[in-house]
Amino acid sequence: FPCIGREIMLHSTLALSLLLIAVNSNLAMAIKKEKRAPQTLSRGWGDEITWVQTYEEGLYQAKKSNKPLMVIHHLEDCQYCQALKKAFAENEEIQEMAQNNFIMLNLMHETTDKNLSPDGQYVPRIMFVDPSLTVRADITGRYSNRLYTYEPQDMTF
């Protein structure tokens, strides 16, 4: 019987060792994940800008901070959106203004707020909501058929 006891103890030690290795491995993977840079909500529009995740969060932050909310509607596979995004991200003045003077949100889907699509659900579309939570219909681009469309050349002051 003494041999059986040693064998059971050996199996228990081996099982415990494997368990500890598995736990340490999972812990190491969790630590590595924490050290990784956080996913950005910028989607290429400006990594130094603080972005809100949802329209509702943007409205809350706008009211709380007394800053207007800028909502950028875009799609990844839209060439006009890509061109506007590049101009927006590369313009230091716009990046600084966006970070300091606005609550920023970029959306790749429509919101349930119909005030954000008064003349259609096209992209790119940039709209502003003031701190009183009113969509600013008076801030528009230069096209009468797509009021809230902006182009790269519109990014210059």
From TrEMBL:
Extract the InterPro entries matched here.
AGR/TXD (IPR051099), Thioredoxin-like_sf (IPR036249)
Q: Name one GO cellular component term.
A: endoplasmic reticulum
Which keywords fit this entry according to its UniProt record? Signal
Residues of the signal peptide: 1-30
Any one GO molecular function term? dystroglycan binding
Origin: domain of life = Eukaryota
Q: Which Pfam families match?
A: Thioredoxin_7
Q: Which family does it belong to?
A: Belongs to the AGR family.
Q: What is this protein called?
A: Anterior gradient protein 3
